[in-house]
From TrEMBL:
<feature type="domain" description="Glycosyl transferase family 51">
    <location>
        <begin position="85"/>
        <end position="261"/>
    </location>
</feature>
<dbReference type="InterPro" id="IPR001264">
    <property type="entry name" value="Glyco_trans_51"/>
</dbReference>
<dbReference type="Pfam" id="PF00905">
    <property type="entry name" value="Transpeptidase"/>
</dbReference>
<keyword id="KW-0511">Multifunctional enzyme</keyword>
<dbReference type="InterPro" id="IPR001460">
    <property type="entry name" value="PCN-bd_Tpept"/>
</dbReference>
<keyword id="KW-0133">Cell shape</keyword>
<keyword id="KW-0573">Peptidoglycan synthesis</keyword>
<keyword id="KW-0472">Membrane</keyword>
<keyword id="KW-0808">Transferase</keyword>
<feature type="transmembrane region" description="Helical">
    <location>
        <begin position="41"/>
        <end position="60"/>
    </location>
</feature>
<protein>
    <submittedName>
        <fullName>Penicillin-binding protein</fullName>
    </submittedName>
</protein>
<keyword id="KW-0961">Cell wall biogenesis/degradation</keyword>
<dbReference type="InterPro" id="IPR023346">
    <property type="entry name" value="Lysozyme-like_dom_sf"/>
</dbReference>
<keyword id="KW-0121">Carboxypeptidase</keyword>
<dbReference type="Pfam" id="PF00912">
    <property type="entry name" value="Transgly"/>
</dbReference>
<feature type="domain" description="Penicillin-binding protein transpeptidase">
    <location>
        <begin position="439"/>
        <end position="604"/>
    </location>
</feature>
<dbReference type="GO" id="GO:0030288">
    <property type="term" value="C:outer membrane-bounded periplasmic space"/>
</dbReference>
């Protein structure tokens, strides 16, 4: 083959010999022998170009777009909304929320493109001139400023670090080229607008719009968009509210961006002429940071959202969730103000006792929605929620559950015998100090003494029907009713109605007197069951969840039969009579209002739980010195008197009856 090819290549031999570098150059003397010929110069340049091209090709082929995004770039805040859809709070380290490109007005997009990369839709993803300038500055001055397309900036935001090095700049260029071939320009622009830093703690143009103009990005005009676009050059230099120098720079940049939009045909001269006045942003960003009571609301909603939607802690912390709660802003305000008034009065009347006073309250609808809670004076100082705490006994506020159990299951006077029905007209002994009995005889405590039941104040009522005993809060009939019905049945009925099994007290006679420790939320939920004709819906604080606008599947509680409708009607009727007896002038006769006060053993807690307009509200007042122990102290006047009950006063003001 060589013999056959030789004759054909022979004519090229002289040229090959001339191209072959002969160095130092023959026929030259002195320093001239070391100067390459023009052919050698051309050959060297072409060889270098080929080597560089091959190197870039290999680098391009070997570069993969990272699969794992920069977690900080993808992290967003979670937004909580009131039941009316208005924002309540935001949580998370980063204030950012993704917005689909279709929801960002075209003029807003082009304001950014005019400021940063007008030929974005036609460029290859990188700017050769800009990269060259950046590399020159790196070598000569030690930084890599300038020269980035929007694609490059997006790559830096979500895939790389902010380190100013030549290697990072090279990697950025390679990924940008590859990304430009794999993603559409609109996808890249959407990602860029959602990950860029705009100052005031905001990432993404949606949060920037809310922080600087107090509205969603969909409502921005071109003039306001130009202000936000100027911030991409550096919020510390272009936020006009920070200094006079910043304001001057911002106005100049704003004007230039609008003129640039005209130059590239994205804003007509007539439209530009309407934007003569600089659109001043808000002095401080409009934020919805968690505050004193909203901390408790957020805590409840967050716990429920994770459980109901099966969201892991990791995913939830990455953010982007919109949590639409059941909390009613007006009811929350009314409840908070009612407790605040009670606190202030306690500080005046009982200054020493008020230091250790605690107030828990919650409002729950008959269909399970938690409308309002009072969790404490400040979550930052007290890190637990009074409305959700199982801290103190329910006391005589527990009696309706004993009554419901008796009506539902009947009573047994002999061990193993048939159950005898109980009605509201069933009569029990209402005297004080009545001995508690079992089918075998008196009930003995561990010390060998016969257990006796007592009424508040040691008052005796004689023989009394169960409905009247509940209406008047007579304890002794219900202690015996609990024994006759079976304390296990009492516990099951209370749990079915809404109390947690973990909060139920020991199954001893005092169970009927409220040795259980339910939270205010659970007490309100339990009373709501009676108002809902015996169906119980688990209390919930979140009605729906979305993530970046897309629905997140979640479980919503469904009503379950707790007690018979007739049983619930009898209990509710007795609770209505209880309210009318104690507070005859506090509601119109036609109003559906029911409720009952409750006191715990040793005056350690005072309750009022009642239902008005299908909303049950529970209020508890107690004292604990958290610096010493979790043991409840005597109220010592903080909860008022029977005639002037503090829990009832809070309840009445919160429900609009006080």
């Amino acid at each position: 083959m060589r013999a056959a090819a030789g004759p054909r290549l022979a004519p090229l031999a002289p040229y090959a010999r001339r191209l072959r570098p002969r160095y130092p150059r023959p026929g030259r003397s002195g320093w001239r022998r070391w100067i390459p010929s023009w052919r050698q110069w051309v050959g060297g340049v072409l060889s270098g170009f080929v080597v560089l091209s091959l190197s870039l090709f290999v680098a391009y082929e070997l570069t993969d777009v990272p699969k794992n995004l920069n977690s900080f770039a993808t992290q967003q805040d979670n937004v909580y909304f009131w039941s009316d859809g208005t924002p309540m709070a935001r949580t998370g380290w980063v204030r950012r929320q993704d917005m689909p490109l279709k929801d960002i007005p075209e003029q807003v997009r082009w304001a950014v493109l005019a400021a940063e990369n007008a030929d974005f839709y036609s460029d290859p993803g990188i700017s050769v001139e800009g990269i060259t300038r950046a590399l020159w500055r790196t070598v000569g001055e030690g930084d890599t400023e300038g020269g980035s397309t929007i694609t490059q900036q997006y790559v830096k935001n979500v895939y790389l670090t902010q380190n100013q090095t030549v290697s990072r700049k090279f990697t950025e260029a390679m990924i940008s080229l590859k990304l430009d071939s794999k993603m559409s320009k609109d996808e890249i622009l959407e990602g860029y607008l959602n990950t860029s830093w705009f100052g005031r703690g905001t990432y993404g143009i949606q949060r920037a719009s809310q922080a600087y103009y107090g509205k969603d990005v969909s409502r921005l005009d071109a003039s306001q968009a130009a202000v936000l676009a100027s911030l991409l050059k550096g919020a510390a230099l272009y936020d006009p509210t920070l200094s006079k120098a910043n304001h001057k720079r911002a106005v100049e940049r704003w004007s230039w961006i609008l003129d640039r939009m005209v130059d590239i045909g994205k804003l007509s001269p007539a439209q530009r002429a309407t934007y003569k006045t600089f659109p001043e942003p808000l002095k401080s960003g409009r934020t919805y940071d968690t505050g004193k009571q909203s901390d408790y609301l957020v805590e409840l909603a967050q716990q429920y959202a994770k459980k109901a939607a099966h969201i892991s802690d990791r995913d939830f912390d990455l953010g982007g969730y919109q949590i639409y709660t059941t909390f009613d802003r007006k009811r929350e305000t009314a409840l908070t103000e009612a407790v605040a008034k009670a606190r202030e009065q306690a500080r005046k009347d009982h200054p020493e006792q008020a230091k250790t006073a605690h107030y828990g309250a919650a409002s729950v609808t008959t269909d399970g929605r938690i409308l309002a809670v009072y969790g404490g004076p400040d979550h930052r100082k007290q890190g637990y929620n009074e409305s959700n705490a199982t801290t103190v006994q329910a006391g005589s506020a527990f009696l309706p559950f004993v009554y419901a159990a008796g009506l539902e299951h009947g009573v047994k006077k002999t061990r193993g015998g048939p159950a005898t029905p109980v009605t509201p007209e069933t009569v029990y002994d209402g005297d004080d100090a009545v001995a508690v009995t079992t089918p075998e005889g008196p009930y003995w405590d561990r010390n060998g003494k016969v257990v006796a039941a007592h009424n508040d104040g040691g008052k005796s009522y004689g023989r009394i029907t169960l409905d009247k005993a509940l209406a008047r809060s007579v304890n002794t009939p219900f202690v015996q009713l609990g024994m006759d019905t079976g304390l296990d049945n009492v516990s099951r009925t209370a749990v079915a109605a809404g109390l947690l099994s973990s909060s139920m007290g020991p199954q001893v006679p005092s169970l009927s007197l409220g040795n259980s420790t339910p939270s205010a939320i659970r007490m309100a939920s339990g009373y709501a069951t009676f108002a809902a004709a015996g169906t119980h819906t688990e209390p919930y604080s979140v009605r729906r969840i979305t993530r970046n606008g897309s629905p997140v599947p979640m479980a919503t509680p469904r009503p379950q039969r707790a007690v018979g409708a007739d049983v619930a009607e009898h209990v509710e009727r007795a609770l209505t009579e209880s309210f009318r007896t104690a507070h005859p002038a506090d509601a119109p006769a036609a109003a559906k209002v029911s409720g009952k006060a409750g006191t715990a053993e040793d005056d350690s807690a005072a309750w009022y739980v009642g239902t008005s307009a299908s909303v049950s509200t529970a209020v508890v007042v107690y004292r604990i010195d958290l610096t010493k122990s979790l043991e409840p102290l005597s109220l010592d006047g903080v909860a008022g008197t029977t005639a002037d009950s503090v829990p009832y006063g809070v309840w009445a003001r919160a429900t609009g009856l006080g």
